[in-house]
């Protein structure tokens, strides 16, 4: 590479580093975060599980509550389940369009939410994941004010991740970080089968 | 709940189930996928690691190649590193704006890419993650044609996940599934410190 190009690159990188350093210095508040992974694209639940693996890697206590999804989606649970620092609760009623009974689903949601509330009062849980919670609000199985209350009163060091499409407006307002996973293209819509160990 | 509401719900769910069943039936092609997680939002790398945990949960062989990122980001690696089915290679030169030497970075990229190529010829790797690869193309450290060639010739059962901002147009054209992780809000920009075990 020419010396001139090398110098230009170095200057550009120095400028970028200054910018990043300034942002790091400005970020001074330390507390647990509320993260929302929403949107119609692939990656919401897997991003949550990736964060679970990350937190466990440092030895932090983690709680995961999975709403709706059934026992068939279990690769990541299986892999991490033996960790004494991890507790996973799964509603496991199957998808609501398979059970097709609103009252049963509502009762299952209620019982599962009780575990979420317990975890959100436990300071030993550094990270709590409420996977697919958004649907519980959307279907009216759970009241948004109750969810907001539990979030507001959780231990200050605790980070909570909420995943699911169509996140409630009030949840979004409360969130520190929101990522909208947008589906630009999905293999499934092109006739490609869902892959074991990849899609579920 | 009223009987009428219960009936309405049941009908809506039956219709949804028909729609989903039809899509599942139409998806008949079985092969490894090319997934791209791009966009400026949080969740690209963690979604890849979540998928790693998922694939490992079924006992599949997984290879991860991390471009750029340094040793400091390691929670998820640490947690999964003991898995005999997982191989992780990390370029680990630190961020390019810290090393600020284009030639060194390019050489490190070249050496790291060799591992990616090896994994992409190995049928025992059911999943290969090329984390932050997009920057290697953007910085000109790696030629896109070379990457496309390796992808095109990989074992048919192998799924590859590429993460990073500003994914190359040709990579996007080749992808089966693209998720654009959009940053709607980020805690860091509101003065909140990055959290150990959450952000890194």
Automatic annotation (TrEMBL), chains A, B:
Record PANTHER family: CORRINOID ADENOSYLTRANSFERASE (PTHR46638:SF1)
GO molecular function: ATP binding; corrinoid adenosyltransferase activity
Catalytic activity: 2 cob(II)yrinate a,c diamide + reduced [electron-transfer flavoprotein] + 2 ATP = 2 adenosylcob(III)yrinate a,c-diamide + 2 triphosphate + oxidized [electron-transfer flavoprotein] + 3 H(+); 2 cob(II)alamin + reduced [electron-transfer flavoprotein] + 2 ATP = 2 adenosylcob(III)alamin + 2 triphosphate + oxidized [electron-transfer flavoprotein] + 3 H(+)
Protein's cellular compartments: Cytoplasm
GO CC terms in record: cytoplasm
Superkingdom, natural source: Bacteria
EC number in record: 2.5.1.17
Cross-referenced InterPro entries: CblAdoTrfase_CobA, P-loop_NTPase
Enzyme class: transferase
Main location: cytoplasm
Protein name: Corrinoid adenosyltransferase
One GO term (biological process): porphyrin-containing compound biosynthetic process
Annotated family: Belongs to the Cob(I)alamin adenosyltransferase family.
Keyword check for Transferase: yes
Functional note: Required for both de novo synthesis of the corrin ring for the assimilation of exogenous corrinoids. Participates in the adenosylation of a variety of incomplete and complete corrinoids.
Protein keywords: ATP-binding, Cobalamin biosynthesis, Cytoplasm, Nucleotide-binding, Porphyrin biosynthesis, Transferase
Pathway: Cofactor biosynthesis; adenosylcobalamin biosynthesis; adenosylcobalamin from cob(II)yrinate a,c-diamide: step 2/7
């Amino acid at each position: 590479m020419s010396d001139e190009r090398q110098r230009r690159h170095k200057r550009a990188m120095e400028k970028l580093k200054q910018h990043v350093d300034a942002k790091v210095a400005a970020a001074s508040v330390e507390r647990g975060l509320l993260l929302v992974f929403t949107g119609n694209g692939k990656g919401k639940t897997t991003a949550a599980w990736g964060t679970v693996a990350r937190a466990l890697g440092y030895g932090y206590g983690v709680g995961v509550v999975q709403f709706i999804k059934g026992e068939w989606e279990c690769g990541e649970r299986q892999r991490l389940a033996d960790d004494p620092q991890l507790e996973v609760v799964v509603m496991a009623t199957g998808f609501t369009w398979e059970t097709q009974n609103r009252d049963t689903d509502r009762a299952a949601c209620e019982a599962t939410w009780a575990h979420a509330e317990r975890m959100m009062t436990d300071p030993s849980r550094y990270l709590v994941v409420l996977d697919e919670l958004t649907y519980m609000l959307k279907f009216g199985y759970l009241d948004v004010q109750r969810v907001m209350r539990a979030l507001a009163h959780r231990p200050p060091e605790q980070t909570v991740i909420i995943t699911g499409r169509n996140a409630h407006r009030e949840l979004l307002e409360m969130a520190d970080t929101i990522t909208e996973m947008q589906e630009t293209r999905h293999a499934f819509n092109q006739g490609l089968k869902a892959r074991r160990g990849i899609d579920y």
